[in-house]
Input
Amino acid sequence: MKIKVKLTLAVGLLFLLIIALGLIGGFQIISLSRDTNNILVANYNTLDFSRNMLKALDELEQENNSLRSFQDNLNKQQNNITEVGEQEYTDRLTKHFSDFKTNTSDTLTENKIRTDIYDIMKVNMDAIQRKSEIAKTTARNAILWLSITGTFCFVIAFSLLVNLPGGIANPIRELTESIKEIAAKNYSKRVNFQSRSEFGELASSFNTMAEKLEEYNSSNLAKLMKEKKRIETLINNMHDPVIGLDEERKIIFANSEAVKIAGLKTEELIGKNAQEISIHNDLIRSLLQEINNGKNIPSKIEKKPLKIYADGKESYFEKEILNISIVPTGEQTAQLIGHVIILRNVTLYKELDFAKTNFISTISHELKTPISSIKMSLQLLENEKIGKLNEEQQNLISSISDDASRLLNITGELLNMTQVESGNIQLGIMPADPMDMVNYAVNATKIMAEQKNIKIEINSEENLPKVLADNEKTAWVLTNLISNAIRYSYENSTVFIGVNSKNSMVNFIVKDTGQGIAPQYKTKIFDRYFRIPGTKKEGTGLGLSISKEFIEAQGGQIMLESDFGAGSVFTISLHTA
Output
């Protein structure tokens, strides 16, 4: 039965029961009213007439109109004959009253009249008693029928109250639970509604959907397994170690290269918790370090190469951690579901880098000696005690001296670069006066500034605290920044140097008023060998890169702000002593 029909029948039945209860109650009330009205209309009036006639007889001696009153009540009684025998008594009363009117002093006739009146009253009193019993019976029947009808209505209403809501709510609840099971990928769930209502049709449609989903899931299982095997084969054939973790840090895959460098067996890795393995395995602990530290892990983490013993030698690997996030269906917030750790084998490149660094270091050292010898020979030639040179010879010596100085600077930068690349930066960090380093750098670039008529303006706070720094290398960095500022500033301009302290840091600020740096080059300015296109090809392109390495090696920071067309500002921040 359809739900709409069921609800219509239930409400209609209640409506009919209410109408039936009202009709039965009204009928019984009308019957009871009719029975009581018969007593009042028929018998009560007769008793009233009889009483009035007796009263008229009693007043016959005192009032002359008593006969007329008697006659009036007798006429009314004659028109109110309702009971058996009442007509006979009334006729007899009429005859005796006619005889009495001819002789009002006849006592015998008067007594007969009284007897006739009493007989009429007795007949009506008996009728009243009989009709009272009938009224009582009618009242009892009314109560009985109303009780039966009310009980029947209550039973029907209570049955509807108990069964109807459950008959609608229970299938909905069962269907809701089944939908939740389907959402949880339990496609074997079925709904069994035997009724022919809309719920039955809904259950049939639901079961059809679940069956198709189950078929679809089963048909795709083989395809998914094939894709899984394909991905596993691809990962295992990669020459770089790859390890996959889920959100609980459990290792879900690791290729043969990862198993080999970890020094474990496949079954000791796959399916195990990486946190537990890291307790006894230094490599796994190192790989998990960035994941375990901090709550917000960058999607790509680049660190210095890891040195791992692999392939019978010390090998170098670059670690990259990829965070895998998905947006679940029906949601908008991404959810982290795991991590992939990739180790790229850079041993070959590292060996070539070491060879290059050693070569540059060796060449630099080898070049430094002859260049110094050339510089010394030039100084001897410039000495007039050896011989006076003509103007052309002096120009040649000056040119050779400039080239020798440039070569010496290049070899110095190359030596510094080799320190940076080899990781063997030798620092002598100790408390130093920031103004001493600034003054040294200004004096070193004073001649260069005078050649372009550039003014160097120094603004510093009073009572500056000392900084923890390598005096020589920090002064070299300041010299490099000031010389760059002079080189790229216009003639007759000013280079501003500021020194201040803030939050346990001392800031060195070098500001020029030159062309500035275009936005697309700001992120590359500290790269090795990088020079801004279109600028004069002076230097090696290593100065800013080495400066950054020197400052960061001291725990400091170097920053750039540039307004293209208005100049650049370099800021060095070092910790106070």
Q: What stands out?
A: The first strand starts at residue 242 and ends at 246.
